[in-house]
Predict the structure.
Amino acid sequence: MEQLEKKPYIKGLSQWKSCILQTVIVGSFLVAAVPFGCALFAQKQSIAVDALEEDLRKAIMEKDSTIKTVYYNKGL
């Protein structure tokens, strides 16, 4: 943005128009980058039941003692 702000057509804009332009530019990068990041990095992760906290491990073992691995969504 610093390089863009040095351009004469950006210097000629009022402060409000410059703010709106920066918001649109950053927003468009985010619209493109977030889905790409979610596709690039896996959202589901596995973990061994033995590595879980004690109370969670007990709750899983009460339901089904044959489960060795659980999967969770890391979220965004």
Summary: The mean pLDDT is 87.
